[in-house]
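Structural prep section.
Before we set up the soaks we want a predicted structure of the protein with tetrahydrodeoxyuridine in place, mainly to decide which crystallisation condition to try first. Input record follows.
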Amino acid sequence: MDYKELLILAEKAKENAYVPYSKFHVGAALLTDEGKIFTGCNVECASYGGTNCAERTAIFKAVSEGYKNFKAIAIASDLNDYTYPCGICRQVIIEFGLDIDIIVGDSNKEYKVYKASEMMPYSFTKEDLDS
Ligand code: THU
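Run finished without errors. Recording the tokens verbatim:
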């Protein structure tokens, strides 16, 4: 599974976005170390705070199915420009590893790859709780 393919799966997942309020569709595709893929979309709710982003949907699906070692997550949205994960999703991504690749796609099927650690400098992690 190369990252271009992972991004195509994120684009596909976007189609299921439940976005009656923002109308902003986001899809994510998460690749586990075992090569399994979990996709997710954003799911909004009338109490706006109950909204779940696409990235967290994919991660929570994986964790709840017993997978928690992740290699990469690809993100696609309605933006023409690259779609970067929000702060809450970045925090959730680094919970599972600073080494995870984050693939941000744009509408021209171009993408960039960042390490989770690059997107979350000076982060608060589980190691801080151990000290
Ligand atoms: N959204 C995501 O799904 N992922 C992000 O990283 C950014 C924001 C969603 C949340 C909400 O449904 C909509 O995009 C507008 O913020």
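Observations: Residues 19, 22, 24, 26, 42, 44, 51, 53-55, 85-86, 89 surround tetrahydrodeoxyuridine (CB under 6 Å).
Flagged for discussion at group meeting.
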